[in-house]
Amino acid sequence: MATVFKRIGKRNWYIDWYDYTGRRQSKSARTTDKAAATRIANKLDADAALRREQVIDTSCDDHVKQMDRKIKEHLADYVSALRAKGNSDLHVTRTETTIEKACSESSFVLLRDVSADGVNRVLSRLRSDGMSARTIASHAQSMKSFTSWLLSQRKLASDPLSSIKKPSVEDD
Question: DSSP state, 25?
Answer without folding.
Answer: E
